[in-house]
Amino acid sequence: MTLLSGHISHPGLADVLTRIDTAARQAGRSRDEITLIAVSKTFDAPDIRPVLEAGQRAFGENRVQEAKGKWPALHDAFPGVEVHLIGPLQTNKVKEAVALFDAIHTLDRPKLAGELAKEIAKQGRAPKLFIEVNTGGEPQKAGILPEATDAFVTQCRQEFGLTIEGLMCIPPVDEEPSLHFALLDKIARRNGLPGLSMGMSSDFEVAVAFGATHVRVGSAIFGSRSYAG
């Protein structure tokens, strides 16, 4: 896991890590196979620093501009931090995203794949890439449909020359998440993809049982968010 050793002094983080450890053990997995991404979107540096000071080193952000505003300074203060983009990426933000993020979990269309390929070649910097799969076929959500994912993985590899780390999903809120995690795992296996980015505060233990390599947990660590507007 992306965490420094030593005493974990942040209660929310310590609880989540204990729960991941238990879920991994029950699934017969090593906790080292699972990276906890602390979702710090909407939280400012003063809220993030205690989690960094407790040793956490992988964080998730939804927006390029928000991440750009707070992470460069935190990077300087806490070497070895990884920042993952877990929200939608517009093609006009690809240049900034490739420069800023260590992983992008929301690759979901050929146009974006093409822009990422160009910018990776230009910058000589390659964030890990996860394809977002809309496992529930929800019209309001981004992501490649399950039946189109194999072809898109092949297109990313062969047409755009991209290295794909794995797949990501966000199950529908009113459905059993295990069905979606199992589907994502099945698609990943047949495409030879090692990474499974799945599971959030409400269901990350289930995701661990179904093979998640990256779990994205925010409120269980940072507390409830207050959204403006």
Task: Sketch the topology as an H/E string, one letter per element.
Answer: HEHEHEHEHEHEHEHEH
The rounded distance between the terminal residues' Cα atoms is: 36 Å
Unreliable stretches (pLDDT < 50, length at least 5) are 1-6
Helix percent reads 40-55%
SS content category: alpha/beta
Shape: globular
Main sheet makeup = 8 strands, parallel
DSSP strand tally = 8
Q: Mean pLDDT, rounded to whole units? A: 94
Gyration radius, to the nearest Å? 17 Å
Strand order of the largest sheet: 7-6-5-4-3-2-1-8
Number of helices: 9
Strand content: 15-25%
Polypeptide structure, described:
It is a single chain. By secondary structure, the chain is α/β, with parallel strands linked by helices. Helix content is 42%, strand content 15%. The protein has nine helices and eight strands. The chain has helices at residues 11-26, 45-53, 64-77, 94-100, 110-123, 146-158, 177-190, 204-209, 219-222, and strands at 35-39, 58-61, 82-85, 103-107, 128-132, 164-168, 195-197, 214-217. An eight-stranded parallel sheet has the order 7-6-5-4-3-2-1-8. Helix 4 packs across helix 5. The longest helix is centred in the first third of the chain and has 16 residues, at 11-26. The chain is globular and about 45 Å long. It starts with 10 loop residues before the first helix and ends in a 7-residue tail after the last helix.
